[in-house]
Write a structure and sequence with these properties.
The chain folds into two domains: about 100 residues, no CATH class; about 55 residues. It is built from eleven helices and no strands. The two termini are about 30 Å apart. The protein is mainly alpha-helical. Keywords: Glycoprotein, Signal. One of its GO terms (biological process) is cell-matrix adhesion.
Length: about 160
């Protein structure tokens, strides 16, 4: 359905809701900054964004004046925070980053919300996955410290999964 749309409007995004992740990169990139900024509450709650889609949305809203330099602004990105360039995240004070990480303290969401290159900054206590399954493809894209990786291996030995996957 999303692929059949022409112009992307705030109404379209509100109607699509979580299905907005079915829009193509071209459709997302052609939306105006004002449409995406108006739709940010909806877009930030969509769970299926690819890294590319999130990057495009963040790029468009940043070009439209959105500044992701404080915890409230970063938190408003929700699932889109993964599209924020690591260089932009490095400009944010560590205390602000901790506020962002703690928005949803679910380890799976923490890992998903933090940009790949910033994963080394996630405190180990936020990386325990009791009763939750992490997306291995998301985990593989991240940069990890040796102590973080060792913690994951400890968890993996208790996990039943298909090694061929």
């Amino acid at each position: 359905m999303a692929s059949n749309l022409g112009t992307v409007s705030a109404q379209t995004l509100a109607s699509l809701g979580n299905a907005s992740s079915g829009l193509s990169n071209g459709q997302i990139g052609s939306a105006s900054p004002s449409v995406l900024l108006t739709s940010l509450p909806t877009l930030s709650s969509v769970s299926g964004w690819s890294q590319g889609q999130a990057s495009i949305i963040v790029g468009v809203i940043t070009a439209g004046g959105f500044q992701a330099d404080r915890a409230p602004a970063l938190a408003s990105l929700g699932s889109l925070v993964a599209g924020l360039p690591a260089a932009a995240m490095q400009e944010v004070p560590a205390s602000e980053l901790l506020n962002i990480i703690s928005v949803d303290a679910s380890p799976v969401q923490v890992v998903q919300n933090v940009p790949d290159a910033m994963a080394t900054q996630i405190p180990p206590r936020l990386l325990a996955f009791p009763g939750e399954n992490a997306d291995i493809s998301v985990m593989n894209r991240k940069t990890w410290t040796s102590s973080q990786a060792a913690m994951f291996f400890g968890s993996l030995e208790k996990t039943d999964f298909d090694l061929d996957e």
